[in-house]
Amino acid sequence: MNNRILIIGALGQLGGVFIEALLKRGDFVLASDINTPKKDNMKCEFVFLDALNERKIKKIILKYNISQIYNFAAVLSAKGEKDPMTTWDINMGALLKVVKASLNTSVQTIFWPSSIAVFSKHSGLACVKNDVTMFPNTMYGITKLAGEKIMSYYNEKGLMDIRSIRYPGVVSSTEPGGGTTDYVVEMLQNAKENKPYTCPLRKDTVLPMIHIKDVVTATLELMGVEKEKISTSGAYNLGSFETSPEKWSNTINSLGYSLKITYKEDFRQKIADSWPKKVDDSLFRRDIAWEPIYDERATAEDIIEQLVI
Ligand code: SER
Q1: Which pTM was predicted?
Q2: Which of 39, 70, 153, 168 has the fewest C-beta atoms lying within 10 Å of its C-beta?
């Protein structure tokens, strides 16, 4: 395919797996982040980049003749509630600066992830459809919804091709860092280390989750299709499986672990209660012809195997 790709926020939960998949198919990949990578940890070129620095983003686009940007710089839901205004500044700033720096350059397409955090009690949480009422409760959700409006604006005016998926909780062997769905990764980690786990969510809290590799295939498929196939100017729902802390721990223990859990809900419970139990992603599956590979058990099994303790 040979795209020339810039990944912003490449050292977070998602970057590494995207880099691997993109390199594997022969793309040029330039990773960037505000943090510096551990020595010898990068499989591609790396450049220090603050996603709020529009001039530097533009300089990099021009220097490397970038054709696609994956913009993963964001403060997640739980961390974002500790300092909502900074969350707004970072999440919106990172989107707007990247879009602005890309206009009238070699950049053809931008990927920017949205989230299930755009939904709320008014959205029909038993199984949320793609386009429903949205009154997000977290600042993170507010920035994702505002970002969806921004992308629609640029797409509809034909000024930039911006594509987006509302990611559910992502299960990965990399640390998520500050989300409400982080318990899925933390439980796997503790099970592998044979440590007990204190769960911040009630045991029956059902949320949609997905294996990181399914996130990558869905996203790369979306980025690869002709624009005509995309029937929305905004973001797509994406689902894979649904689980709760109790169900997830049973799945983990069915793999031969003996994870012990204490439930101690905190402010994250209220956030989780405002999010969907399931998402209807029929629009994405129809437009993109995608299906997940990993079910709940296969996800737990694959990720726990990859965890380094
Ligand atoms: N995983 C994210 C979070 O919990 C949702 O997009 O904040």
Answers
A1: 0.97
A2: 39
Give tens-digit pLDDT for 175-229.
988 999 999 999 999 999 999 999 999 999 999 999 999 999 999 999 999 999 9
Q: Do residues 211 and 276 touch, judged by C-beta distance below 8 A?
A: no
For ligand 1, whether the C-beta of 179 sits within 6 Å is: yes
Residues labelled catalytic = 140
Ligand 1 contact, 169 CB (< 6 A): yes
CA distance 228 to 211: 28
Indicate which atom in ligand 1 lies nearest the CA of residue 167: 6
Q: What whole-number distance in Å separates Cα of residue 144 and Cα of residue 48?
A: 25
DSSP 45-109: EEEE--TT-HHHHHHHHHHHT--EEEE-----HHHHTTSHHHHHHHHHHHHHHHHHHHTTSS--E
